C-alpha cells in the first residue's frame, strides 16, 4: 500500500504531458463545453472520435483509461436505463408491460453515454492523467489569481491542496498500521451489523484523528521555521509559461467546438 | 532439551505480487523459536523483520510455507485466527499512537474485552499487566494525554500483556526512548518471561540491547535467515555482521581490535561484565 | 564575546499547573555557542532538553533570562513578524519526525519551499535546491515522492530544505530519534559535513551518546540544570555523572571503569572501541617495559 500514487498521474512522454498546466485546465473546460454543444448523431460521432484522438495523443494505455471509467460504470448504466425507458417519443419501438421504448429513448441513451464518456476521458486526459497534482494545484492557483483582489484566499486553497496531497499516503499508511495493531488486540472489523461495525472503527479513527492533529501542529511549526508567511512575496521554483503549442491546442479545441455547432445544423436523424 | 514454541517452515512472502512494485519480504525462511526463550531478531531495515513478526500472529498470511504454534499450523482453521492473536501477542512499533480510550485502564482492557472475559477477570488482568510494565496504579484512571512518552509506551505494551499471551512479540519496543525508559521496558519483558514462562520475541536495531537481554538471535538479511544461534555464537562473527550492514556491540568491536593488536582474547564477548572479567584475567597474567 | 552565535543567560522557565502551582523546568541555565561550533545538549527525557529546544525555537517564552542569537536578544520582548522572519532564515530548525516537516509531494519542490518563501528569483532557487540536494547526497532523488523514501532519506530532505535558506546556525531537535542505524549514520554524517565544511554552527539536542560523541563540546542537562560541560572525552570519562543524568555510559568507558576498579591503572580517553583498545595496549606496553 506504500506504493499508492495519489491521483491518477500517468508518467509518459506526449504532447499533452508537455502542455502548460494552466492551458490544460482551460482545455478541459473548453472540452466540457464542446461535449454539451453536440445535438445530433454526426456531432456526437465527432465527439466520440475526438475522445479517441485524445487518448492516442496522450500515450496513455487503454487499460489506464478504463480505470478512470470503472468507478462511474454504474452511473452510466443508470443513465442509459433512465433514458431508454423514460424518454417519450411519437411511435413506440416496442412495449413490454408498463415499459414502452421509443427510438428517441435509444438515441438519448446513446448520446448521454458518449457525452459522459468523453467528459471523463477529456478531463482525465487533460488534467489528472497528464498533470501532476502539484502542477494542477499551481495552475488553479494562478488561473484564479485575479480573485485575490476580491479577498478570496486563492493561495491558501492551493496550499491546502498541496499539503493534503502530501499527507494522504502518510495517513493511509498510518491507518493500516493502526488497524493491524488493533487487530492484534482482537478487534474485529468484519462481523456484526452496521452499528457494530461502525463502532468497531472507533479504535482506528480516534488514534488517526489525534495523530492528524499532531502532524498538523508539527507541520505548522516546521513551515513557520521555513519562513512561510502566506502567499505574499512568494516566488516559485517552477514557473509555468505558455508557448505556441498551448495556444495552438486551445485554438484547435475552439475550432472543434464551432465545427460541432455546424454539424448540429445538418438535419440528420434525431436531434436531442 | 527445550521445546519449539514457534516454527516457520519454508515460509515465503511477497508484497504486491504480480505488480511492478513486487517486493520479496521473506524467501523460503525456516526458523525455530524455543519455548520460554527471549529471542532477538536483527537485520537492517527492509530485511523482512516486520513481515516476520506479522506472520507469527496471523496478521499476514504467508503465500508459501507454514507457521506452527506448538506444532500446529496457525492457519489450520482460518476462522479462528483471532484466537491465535490472543495467544501470540504483538506489540507494533510506536504502539503509544494506538491508544484510543478515555483512560489507560479502559485501553489496557480492550484486548481482554475482545477475548470475551468477564468484568472481574478483565480488572484482574489490567492490574496484572500494569504491574508488569511498572505503571503506577494512580495513572490507570488518567487519559493517555496526561502521560509522558515512556509511560504511554508502557501502557500500550500492557494492553497486549493483559491478554496473557503465551508468546509476546515486540517490534522495536524501545525505539526513541531514553536509557531509563528503555531499561524499564526490557526489564519488564524479562520479568514477564520469568514469571509466566512465556516466549518473548524482540525486534531491535540496538545490538547493545539485544546483547543484554536476549538469549537467542535470528539474523535476517535480504529476506533470508543468514544466522541463528546464541548471542555469543552470533557476535563471534562480527565481520560477517558488518558485511551485511549490521553493527556489533561496542564491546565486541573493542575486543576484536584487541585481538587484532595481538592480545588473545576470547571470541563472542558481548557484555561489559564478561569483557572486564576476561581482560582482568589477561592483564593480571602480564 | 563577539564570536558567540547563541548566548543563553540565566534562563529560567516554569509553567503553571491547573491548580496555580508553578512547576519549574529549567533553572538558571547559561551557556554560549560560538560561531562555527558543534555542540550537543545531552539529557534524558524530562531533563528539560525539549523545553530548552522550544525556548530556542521561540515557541515558548522564558520566565526570566535572556536568549541572544547573533547578539540580538530574542526573548526580551515580542518580536515583530519581520524580526522573526529574519531570525528564522538565520537559524534553521530540524525536528524529530521527518514526515511532519515535508510540505510538497516532490522532493525538489519541498527543498524549494524555504527559498520560495524568501521570494528569491527562480534561477537562484534552482541553484540552491540543486546545491542543497548535493550536500545531503540526495540529488538522484530530486523527482521522487517523499512518502516513498526511508526515514533517513526524508530527514536529509528536511535538512536540505533548511540549508537552501543558507542559515548560519542549525538546531537539530532529536532529529535522529526515529531513524534506524543506517539512517542515523547518514544524517550524522550530513550534520558533520555542514559544520566542518560549510561552517554552519550546529546545536544538537539528543539523548544518544554516539550522536553527542561527534560534537566539539557536550552540555549535559539533568533536572533542568547543567550538570557538566566539556569535550566528549571529558564527559565520557565520567561514567558516574552520566549515570546520575540517566544517560548511557559508552560500553568502552564502562569497561575501562571496571578494569580501573579491578586495579589496572589504564589512562587516556577510551569512549570509542578504537581509543579503548589503544589505551589497553598502551597499558600493556608500559607494564612490560
Q: What's the N-to-C terminus distance of chain A?
A: 46 Å
Rounded radius of gyration of chain C (Å) = 21 Å
What is the SS-derived class of chain A?
Answer: mainly alpha
Largest sheet of chain A: 2 strands, antiparallel
The total beta strand count of chain A reads 2
**Which two chains touch over the largest interface?**
A-C, 34 and 42 residues
Strand content of chain C: 15-25%
Silhouette of chain C: globular
Helix count from the secondary structure assignment of chain A: 11
Q: What's the helical proportion of residues of chain A?
A: 55-70%
What proportion of the residues of chain C is helical, as a percent range? 25-40%
CATH topological fold name of the largest domain in chain C:
Rossmann fold
Tally of separate helices of chain C: 11
Tally of individual domains of chain A: 2
Distance between the first and last residues' Cα of chain C: 48 Å
Oligomer: heterotrimer
Number of domain modules of chain C: 2
Topology of this protein?
The complex is a heterotrimer of chains A (272), B (286) and C (289).
Chain A: H1 15-18, H2 21-37, H3 41-58, H4 62-69, H5 73-86, E1 94-96, E2 99-101, H6 103-128, H7 133-143, H8 154-184, H9 194-200, H10 202-225, H11 244-265
Antiparallel strand pairs in A: 1-2
Helix pairs in contact in A: 2-6, 2-7, 2-11, 3-6, 3-11, 5-6, 7-8, 8-10
Chain B: E1 4-15, E2 23-34, E3 38-42, H1 49-56, E4 64-69, E5 72-73, H2 81-87, E6 88-91, H3 104-114, H4 119-133, H5 149-161, E7 167-171, H6 179-196, E8 199-203, H7 207-213, E9 216-221, E10 224-230, H8 231-235, H9 238-243, H10 250-260, H11 272-284
Parallel strand pairs in B: 3-8, 3-9, 6-7, 7-8
Antiparallel strand pairs in B: 1-2, 1-4, 4-5, 9-10
Chain C: E1 4-16, E2 22-34, E3 38-42, H1 49-56, E4 64-69, E5 72-73, H2 81-90, E6 91-94, H3 107-117, H4 122-135, H5 151-163, E7 169-173, H6 181-196, E8 201-206, H7 209-212, E9 217-222, E10 225-230, H8 232-236, H9 239-244, H10 251-261, H11 273-288
Parallel strand pairs in C: 3-8, 3-9, 6-7, 7-8
Antiparallel strand pairs in C: 1-2, 1-4, 4-5, 9-10
